[in-house]
Amino acid sequence: MVKTVSMTRTQGSTGEIPDAGQSADVGALPGAAAGVARRSTASTSDRLPLLFLCHRIPYPPNKGDKIRAFHLLAHLSRHFDIYLASFVDDPDDWICAPELDKYCRRICLRPLRPGLAKLRSLSGLLSGDPLSLPYYADSALKQWVARTCMEHNIRHTLVYSSTMAQFLPAGGKDFQRKVIDFVDIDSDKWRQYAEKKPWPLSWLYNREARLLLRCEKALAARFDASLFVSSAEAALFRQLSPATAARTGFYNNGVDSHYFDPQSSVGPTLDNPFPSGCQALVFTGAMDYWPNVDAVVWFAETVLPILRQRHPMLTFYIVGGNPAANVKQLARLPGVRVTGRVPDVRPYLKYALAAVAPMRVARGIQNKVLEGMAMALPVLVSHKGLEGIDAVDGKHVLLAESVDDYLRGIEDLLSGRHGGLGARARERVQRLFNWEQTLPEVVRLLRLNQPDTLAVQRGEQGDG
Q1: Residue 245 CA: distances (Å) to CA of 176, 249, 298, 328, 377
Q2: What are the structural domains, with CATH classification, of the chain?
Q3: Which pTM value belongs to this model?
């Protein structure tokens, strides 16, 4: 039987880390393991309880969706008592669960095994639902949410990812304020996948895109505000769902520019990870994520061999955890290194010649691009990889779509023709992608009493 653990934070209590494969809960579900209690500060009368539903444990913040979710959670915890329900799909993340005690009054974490979840998702073919919904279906988490909302009179919620809205009691009709952070338009991502895949996957992915868009539009109609990761993403959703355009907005991702700083004194010394004479091109990201896999395979097989004909010291470093089998195979190619998970990506960004983000499928904002810019590193990026990031080609980044674009960009960098590009990129990120500037908007939306007065952020970013 799968165990459920929940961590209730109470004054003066301590506890142990739950075993991998458990979820955590004091006052766990019937038949579940006894939970663990942890230390917490007392709630104050002016702090509303907030249900935070998240499809993946927001710690450690080591990949795109978890970075945004963690900073959102941490900021909201300053203003609300957080009741978090989430899934753990990477066994290595269980040991990090206690870190969330700093931000939450109570936590329910459920294990999600991707193989079993994929099999479960096929039930959507019979029910007519998008496969993403049964993928995350979990009766134990649903019961925990219902009981917790009743016990603590929770009437405000932040839903992070459309797939988590299914856990709201009675569809959320009894909540006073409901805000959903879609992050990306997932339906459009599936549409892009369909364009890259042969039949029958193309049929399956087109079906997912169509049904998930219908779900996204229905959720936007039920929620008081729908948020996305960028102005471009929000603008596209307004086109797809004009009936909810007035309640659709965005808040930018942020970057910790004190941490992602080539001169940073935060953490260990940033020693050069490359051998002497190496001209490193770096790609960072979760390497089991198909758009990242597609990008590095294309670059390593199509672009890099031609670059190395002119510059044999160029080496392509693929830096990120859980590399897929076809990514691992790239290490057999001349000039390709696959590192797997590393404790700190900053040394790779600090000492590289450039970062590359040759994304051919993408939605939302690429944190890998923002982090490279914050490190004052030249970034060669595709148009899709730059979506949602207000940066100018030749001033803050170098746009590259073809082999010729990369040849020209690398030649220019090696000849010193883009002096100051990295510094301008870092300044751009510091000004436009700052969590302290963007997250207060979410607090305001959750506290509004009248939906008619909603004024979500809708403006475009300035060129500056």
Answers
A1: 21, 8, 37, 43, 37
A2: 5-250 (3.40.50.11720), 279-432 (3.40.50.2000)
A3: 0.83
